[in-house]
Design goal:
heterodimer, A: 365 residues, alpha/beta, nine-stranded mixed sheet, 12 helices, elongated, B: alpha/beta, six-stranded parallel sheet, 15 helices, 19% strand
């Protein structure tokens, strides 16, 4: 295995990390090389290094490719110094070493312009021996915010999680229903950090489009009379989380309270009546939410997504469609990283989401 | 005017699902009545902007467009024409899945702008459409016509009962294009006639420069950062240059309009006055339409009359034939639809002073022209030289003071130049640049100006639109110069070659204070 020489950090295997300065030297070497070799057309042009923030990504080692691909898509939208920690929970406890490597994510904003690059530090390690936070903090670039994208089981790496919550500007949890269920705990540990779940941003367009369907008084009257909700979603972790958040959004905005669960149905109460909410997983090639049905006693609203379109049937029969392309994870993450600091709609949805997610993550649903 | 509009805000939203969603992004449904629907502006700018808003999901379900013009067209033909225009001019390709539902809300009504009976027909048509479409009585009239029709249309709408909202929750607004008058008197008359028909809060006067991301960024740069404001004044700023340079001359038959206007009316009175106001204004007490526009008006009021002392610090020019890379370029008088003896100015350079505590004694140099060597819109803050030339005994004196350049277009961004030591054994200085570029610093594509402005008008946010007094004060500054030039003997035009940086007199104007125009 390569030793601590600078160039060894530039290889895919990386090198054993013993000093944070080694990585900074490796990065400086990498940028110097990149600047010398970058060309634009016939002339040499400098490479632009851009970081809007530090982005610490914590995830399981066996999902390595997925976050790296997403970061590659994210870089043009939101370039960061990304520090990716891949935790191998199955490694033996005596496996203390951290392997590190550095690379750059580059894109060309326009033909003829210099490349724009963001740097990536990849750290691979065993289960948290309690000092990962001390490993990560020195690697952060000064003077820019710290963002966290947490995809690990929220019960793991608690010291690291706690430290990041103390220092971060935003903490985006992306750990499935268990992550949603833990939002309360994460909030209690956060100092001034904004804690969100990625699913909330994945359904951002659903929320906007749905709100736009109920702008007239007759439509609002229908909303007040809704008694049953059915959300069909892809039978995947993200589909389930998206459905949880959509149900929670409706509950938060319409003041449906006290969710309980029985016979496969969530039950809540508005001022006027009881509401039943069903989350139905369905095998489909689509991702996320497939359809939403709101039923009152005498009318039904339905919105179903097909082929990048949202097909809507209003309570009184009028049908129309509007664009609803699939939102990639990188797009949702970019939305989450620049999202509002105070999001009252999220706050209202948070409690019902946590309650529903707790049932889901226990396997009750 | 609805109750909510009287309070200056959006109509009250009773939809609980909209509670605390990011504000002001998706407006309530409305019917956009587009006067001049078959004209150039509607086809090249407005229709593509509406399509892109639809594509990005910013148009609410139920948004309706009623095109209005003199020609007789069936709805379907108008939709097809619009599709062709959007296909050609949209910044994004047309997606049939977006166009299809969007086009279902497009209609057309033939109307003669000065015929009252035609407005009765318009009213009837609107009533019919609004029974089918969920716009709840919200109407946005867009006057994208020749300017001589602005007041007439407003008055006819009023007479036809089409200005008063149908219910307490509905809004009626009017967007008025530029030019807003030809001089102070005509602008005041237009304002007066518009305000007789609509309340000021219903009137949205467009200056599309205000819709540009980079122009809005002037406020962000100045007021979201603490480091610039302490330097943004007469103690540290030597002068300010504002340049709007166009490489092209008259495209198509644009000369027909331009020959009646000239650079002073076409660029200086509106766009450049806005850039100057945003650069020179005091921090507003709030980031809202009223506070921002109040501060801009204060700047315009404080601009010293151009004819102070009788001789204006102003240069006018007209391009003559020239060439670029061996290719001949026609002169202005050779352009289509331009009079062979035209005395219209295609170039203007001005020196203005803003007589406030902040800017007393700091010259603002404005220049704009057609057929200049390159296209560029920039604001340059040139700072004073250091109080001591500490490096004069070394090999290289600092040649240029620090400059903060706000690039509005192209290559949108901000650059700060400063002196740094050149690596080596000797103390040599070199000028370096810290450069922020929109294109490489943020992901995603910025919306076009008209997209932003149309959305804001639907949302009822007038921050990026001109208030009546803004327009009035801008004309108060420009009109005396127009009258002065009109009273002078015919100028010796053309006085600069196409493809050069304007008449020599412009260099002399700025050279009087020992500075020179920034090389773009």
């Amino acid at each position: 295995m390569a030793n601590g020489s600078v160039t060894s950090f530039l290889s895919a295997e990386g090198a054993v990390l013993t000093d944070p300065g080694e990585l900074e030297r490796a990065l400086a070497f990498m940028w110097k090389q990149a600047g010398e070799s970058a060309t634009v057309g016939e002339s040499k042009a400098a490479v632009s290094r851009v970081s809007l923030a530090n982005l610490v990504v914590v995830g399981p080692a066996d999902a390595r490719d997925a976050p790296l691909q997403i970061l590659g898509e994210l870089a043009p939208q939101y370039p960061t110094r990304s520090i990716v920690l891949l935790i191998n929970s199955a490694a033996p406890p005596q496996h203390q070493q951290v392997l590190a490597s550095v690379s750059a994510l580059c894109h060309l904003p326009r033909p003829g312009e210099p490349q724009v690059c963001a740097e990536q530090i990849l750290l691979r390690c065993g289960p948290d021996q309690g000092d990962l936070d001390r490993t990560v903090l020195p690697l952060l670039e000064g003077d820019i915010p710290l963002m966290v994208w947490w995809t690990l089981d929220p019960g793991l790496c608690r010291p690291l999680r706690s430290t990041l919550l103390q220092h971060a500007t935003r903490f985006i949890c992306d750990a499935g229903p268990a992550g949603v269920a833990h939002l309360g705990e994460l909030n209690s540990e956060a100092a001034s950090c904004v804690v969100r779940d990625l699913g909330w941003y994945r359904i951002g367009r659903w929320r906007e489009l749905l709100a736009g369907c109920f702008d007239t008084p007759p439509q609002q009257q229908f909303l007040r009379a809704v008694q049953r909700v059915r959300i069909e979603h892809a039978a995947t972790v993200t589909g389930t989380v998206d459905a949880i958040w959509l149900a929670a959004f409706l509950a938060g905005q319409l003041d449906w309270r006290k969710p309980t669960f029985s016979d496969g149905i969530f039950r809540m109460r508005s001022e006027a009546q009881a509401i039943e909410v069903a989350l139905a997983a369905t095998r489909t090639e689509q991702e996320g939410i497939v359809s939403l049905t709101l039923a009152a006693s005498e009318a039904t609203f339905q919105a179903s997504r097909r082929d990048g379109q949202l097909h809507i049937v209003e309570p009184h029969g009028q049908a129309r469609s509007t664009s609803l392309p699939h939102l990639s994870c990188s797009q949702a993450l970019a939305d989450g990283l620049v999202g509002r600091h105070i999001d009252l709609a999220f706050e209202r949805a948070s409690l019902p989401a946590r309650t529903i997610a707790a049932f889901v993550s226990r396997g009750s649903v | 005017m609805s109750t909510a509009e009287a309070a200056g805000g959006q109509p009250h939203i009773a939809n609980p699902l909209r509670r605390d969603l990011p504000p002001a992004m998706i407006p309530v449904p409305c019917c956009l009545v587009l006067f001049g629907a078959t004209g150039d502006l509607a086809r090249r700018k407005i229709a593509p902007a509406l399509y892109n808003l639809a594509r990005e999901g910013f148009l609410p379900p139920g948004f309706t467009l009623l095109g209005v013009a003199r020609r007789d067209l069936p709805d379907q033909r108008f939709r097809e024409d619009l599709l062709a225009d959007v296909t050609e001019h949209s910044r994004q390709p047309v997606d049939p899945a977006v166009w299809e539902p969007f086009s279902q809300g497009i209609f057309y009504q033939s109307l003669r702008f000065d015929q009252p009976q035609d407005y009765a027909g318009l009213r009837h048509r609107l009533d019919t459409i609004e029974r089918q479409r969920p716009v709840n009585g919200n109407r946005l009239y867009y006057l994208a016509t020749a300017p001589e029709f602005f007041a007439t249309i407003a008055e006819q709408l009023k007479a036809a009962g089409l200005v008063t909202p149908l219910n307490a929750m509905a809004f009626n607004r009017v967007i008025v294009e530029k030019p807003f008058g030809r001089d102070l008197n005509t602008a005041r008359e237009l304002n007066s006639r518009l305000q007789a028909a609509f309340d000021e809060k219903q009137i949205f006067r467009i200056d599309h420069y205000l819709g540009k991301e980079t122009v809005q960024n002037i406020l962000a740069l100045r007021f979201a950062n603490a480091i610039f404001e302490p330097l943004w004044n007469r103690r540290y700023v030597d002068h300010v240059q504002i340049t709007v340079a166009e490489r092209v001359g008259m495209e198509g038959r644009r000369g027909q309009y331009y020959d009646t206007a000239g650079a002073l009316r076409d660029m200086v009175q509106n766009h450049m006055m806005q850039l100057l106001a945003l650069t020179a204004m005091e921090p507003p007490v709030a980031m809202d339409a009223r506070a921002i526009r109040d501060e801009k008006v204060k700047v315009l009021r404080a601009i010293r009359p151009i004819l102070d002392g009788g001789v204006p610090a102003a240069v006018r020019g007209q391009y003559g034939p020239g060439s670029f890379a061996g290719q001949p370029m026609p002169g202005y008088r050779q352009e289509e639809a331009v009079a062979a003896d035209s005395t219209t100015q295609t170039y203007v350079a001005l020196r203005l002073f803003v007589d406030t505590w902040r800017w007393s004694g700091v010259p603002f140099y404005l220049r704009t022209g057609k057929c200049l060597p390159k296209r560029a819109t920039e604001i340059t803050i040139q700072f004073r030289s250091p109080p001591m030339a500490m490096f004069r005994n070394y090999e290289q004196l600092p040649e240029e003071p620090n400059q903060l350049v706000l690039r509005v277009q192209p290559d949108e961004g901000v650059a700060l130049s400063f002196e740094a030591k050149v690596p080596g054994m000797r103390m040599r200085l070199g000028k370096v640049k810290m450069n922020f570029r929109y294109g490489s610093s943020f992901g995603g594509e910025a919306p076009e100006a008209y997209e932003r402005l149309l959305l804001d008008a639907m949302l009822g946010d007038s921050t990026l639109f001109l208030r009546a007094d803004e327009v009035d004060y801008a004309w108060q500054i420009i009109t005396p110069l127009l009258e002065h030039w009109a009273a002078q003997p015919a100028p010796p035009f053309p006085n600069y070659e196409a493809g050069t940086w304007g008449p020599a007199e412009a260099d002399q104007l700025i050279g009087e204070t020992g500075v020179q125009w920034r090389r773009l």
